């Protein structure tokens, strides 16, 4: 068994698609109408056959509440690995991304947290 899709709730699918593809650099894999919303997934440019990230609408009250509470508590909804966290931090700062935590060493890891502009905090990590 392997993980093929993981999802994050987003307030606006179009805004999320733009942020995750144009700002973060993920590659759109699927964009399929599913009634009122769409099945939008992205993949890493380095692993285009790897795990897909689904941009899932937060239109259900439980999803919206879950997303809002995690954000309010400063809890990232997911984590992305990066090869050079300081270079990635600078690249994202230059694109206007707002960080809630600058790169911080935690044992053998260095992490940073940013706001995805779609209702989530995202953590990046370098081993």
From TrEMBL:
Pfam families: Glyoxalase (PF00903)
The protein's name: Glyoxalase
Organism: Metabacillus litoralis
Listed InterPro entries: Glyas_Bleomycin-R_OHBP_Dase, Glyas_Fos-R_dOase_dom, VOC_core
Domain VOC: 1-127
CDD domains according to UniProt: VOC_like
């Amino acid at each position: 068994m392997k993980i093929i899709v993981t999802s994050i709730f987003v307030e606006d699918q179009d805004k999320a698609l733009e942020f995750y593809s144009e700002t973060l650099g993920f590659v759109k894999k699927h964009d399929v109408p599913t009634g009122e919303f769409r099945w939008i997934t992205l993949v890493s440019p380095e692993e285009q056959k790897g795990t897909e990230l689904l941009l899932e609408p937060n239109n259900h009250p439980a999803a919206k509440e879950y997303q809002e509470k995690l954000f309010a508590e400063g809890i990232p909804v997911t984590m992305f690995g990066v090869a050079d966290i300081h270079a990635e931090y600078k690249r994202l700062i230059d694109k206007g991304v707002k960080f809630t935590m600058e790169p911080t060493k935690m044992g053998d890891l260095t992490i940073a947290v940013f706001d995805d502009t779609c209702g989530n905090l995202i953590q990046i990590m370098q081993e």
